[in-house]
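User: quick one, fold this
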Amino acid sequence: MSRTSRYVSLLREYKGMKFRMVKTLLALWLLTGLAAGAARAEIAWHWEDKFSNNEQAMLKSWITHTLSALESLVAPLPFDIDIHFYRLADRGEPVPWANTRRGRRQGVNFHVDPAFPRKAFYADWTASHELSHLLIPYLGEADSWFAEGFASYLQYQVMRHMGEMDAAGITGAYRERMARARLSYRLPDIPLAAASRELRRAGAYPTYYWGGAVYFLLADTALRQGSGGGLSNLLRAYVACCRERHTRVAGLVEEFDRIAGEPLFSGLLREFRERPGFPEYGGALEQLEIQLQEKSADIGKDLVALLDRLDRHRRINRISAVGLALVEEGKVVFSGGLGIMDHDGSGPVTGESLFRIGSITKSFTALALVDLARTQDVDLDAPVLDVAGSDLFSNDWAAEAPVTLAQLLEHTAGFTDISKSEFEFNDSDAIPLSSTLTRYRSKHNTAWQPGLFASYSNLGYAFAGRAIEVIAGSDYEDYLQRELFGPLQMNDSGFFLSEHQRRRLVTGYDTDGETHIPYWNMVYRPFGGLNTTVNDMSRFLRMLMQDGELEGVQVFPETVIRRTRQPTTGLVASAGVASGYGAGAYSWMHGGTRFHGHGGDADGYLSRYGYTKRNHSGYFLVVNAFNADVLNAMRRDVESYLTRELPAVAEPEIHYLGQREIEALQGRYLPQTWRFGDGSSGRTLQVLSEGNQLFTVMGNRKRLLIPVSERRFRRRGQSEATSAIIDADGERYFVGPEGGFRRAG
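Assistant:
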């Protein structure tokens, strides 16, 4: 029998086993439940070289997010860990080297280059590999093939839970690395386990790392075919019961077999120790890809599984409360909460619990102004100073480029964000909007010519709120209560809390999920001061995706709702790019499907709503902690659920540029906008070519720029143009989600 046939036979043998097993399965489920409720590992941070506060925050976020994904995949580690950081620059990658620390205290040493952007660290496999090592004890140098194979196999599974890879990406990475390792294996008469020491001595680390990963590929696919639910389920039970018992492979494998109920792991170990040559894995990769895709489909089709996944994110990250509304084909399928109001156990979260939603308030402000302008016959392209008062702000370009109402709503008005003193404002009194604008009037000036570039600014929405007051002859808060919340029957939404409502407000926490952040009174309520409930937001969602209609009533005209989705100002809109920031909402892609919506940060709360017109589905999601990584992981899960049955969106055909056209677009582009400060520290953008392909480079991040026309571009995985290169007033500009840039020279 060939080695390939022997391994396929082994898989079939385990597939047919009944895993004995009522007792074993009951024990596994019990242990799984215990692991899910276990306390999360505490991290002790050690900065062995000097890192700035921003660098420390970024590195902490990376490790915390990776550990959360590992614990979501398997289980919380049953001990605290030490993370040591060393600075190691100019090696061409964010994490040139790392290794685990074993002993009385477990942990990892990371040698990093913090000049790389946050996304580069998240896309790097090193942290997921090294932290995976900690799930099992140190097994000694002789069996390093087993330990390294274990960590190599798990690293991509962890990255999938981080949202960095999908099922096809995982199996593609396995296929490439295992095939490369097999080709480089030069010891056909020696089993992998016996050859690992020589391979290690020769520096052929990838060969025995990925040879060892084959062991866990075969074990995982066998477990998935049987009743065990896969390697992650087995490891969950192992961590709960037995993580600190064994320090040798024999004892570890015996424990794995006991949990599985059959000698799967010992049988594979014998094969790897006795069968000469690189281990064969037959069709195991193809089988794994099918299993992973089926698992994704099961989660997508099962609302209960989705809620369980979100709740697992919540528990692992010590978030007490999650609010969620799900709308499918215009109907609410879930509106409620997960968890409790605060860590003191004051009661469960429900659809009636109040949350702060931060900048999602802008969607309501914009909707109010667009509709008010319609009813009062005010042109959104009218100058703000003509409509809302001549002394709101200063504009050095007023003669040729006045700030318009539409520009306020689309962040193209030329303003930076509010000042430090405005951010720190926390007066609990209901001070009128006009008074706070007057107090900080000296800080309100345009920083670049209005109407050219999009740059996010809370200040613009303060002026939009004031415009509502002047046009309507009413306080901003009263107008929204009367003209938006009332017609939409959002009866629990508003800007000020009664004593009864304060008791229904979910407590807000910092990133750790435990440090309480007191209620913050925002200086300008139109940009972020709204309090609301999940049930109220579900009504808002349904109205948006039904173009203004709710329960048979046309609450707002369809033209008003369409206007919120469509950017009309700025160079990027003039180039025909439909994505970007409209009137109070922006768009993004998930798997090629365009979502519209907004996010919110409200000092202790993070939130997001989004909807797609492709199947009239959407969501509102809020957590009571300043933890963007968790919110984004939950958001990706929800968007995958909502788009699970949609056909793939074809990417636009590539518009191939000639060499002369490519050369004309290359160069160094200087930032023209900035959100804070004076703009002196803004990063430049480089457009360069390799062959007939264009790339952008910002910092250490290099990204492919795919032309869909001569001057409009998309990124890989996007179904439409999102950026453009434009000539205006004798200058050449790059505009897109990265910001606005002018070519130097």
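User: anything notable?
Assistant: DSSP finds 28 helices and 22 strands in the chain.
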